[in-house]
Amino acid sequence: MSTGPGLFSDIGKKARDLLTKDYLSDHKFSVSTYSESGVALTTSTVKKGGYSSGDVAAQYIYRNTSTDVKVDTESNISTTLTVSNIVPSSKTIFTLKYPNYGSGKLEFQYFHPHASLAAAVGLNQAPPVDFSVTLGTPTFALGAEAGYETTSGKLTKYTAGVTVTKPDSCASVILGDKGDTIKASYIHYFDQLKKSAAVGEITRRFSTNENTFTVGGSYAVDSLTLVKMKLNNHGTLGAVLQHEVIRKSLVTISSEFDTKALDKTPRFGVSLALKP
Asked: Could you report the per-residue pLDDT of 199-223, keeping only the tens digit for each?
């Protein structure tokens, strides 16, 4: 599956992950543990204002099947079952939520050396349908996605994108929000492990003439410590410090500041992932 162009959702993902992944800005504390039998357990707590909420998530992997169950403090239960290779080079994903059964979804993904497609349908009486296709190679790919609402018979979204990937860099352009937004991103790596990198992303919304420009990067201080930072033109500064305390076990500390309102209390988050 890794020899093809990937899914449409992979377009721009490398830059997006560097600018968003591990940035915990909601006073969040989480602990993850992993067992050798393939069971993963994650507990997290988020504090917003004076209210705290949390959830517990568990994952079990056996051969080509994985099961994820998540329960939050409001007794909402989400279950995801993923099965690989029901059809060769495919992945089938079934999601069910309780008590909101209407938000369940069935998704099918198919991978080919020069193309990939994904189709998802909601599990309710008037199911929304999403479809995406990507053509190309691991080096160059272009794709499109669309969403259709069966009740109104209208397209809810249509997006197109193109990406060029090299061993040390990746550039992507995405036209989204029904043609109202264009986003361009570029990421460049400075080492073979791809831990030290620089990234830039610019978003233009035509309806409001609004531009958002974000720059960021990551730097491997040593083999155990990684630092990440990002800053946008609205003055939002984010920072992440990630350290491997013991083998495969990571502690991550993140914070976000508004440089235009330094009197405001910064937001922060802490997570701990423990692996055997």
From this structure: 999 999 999 999 999 999 999 999 9
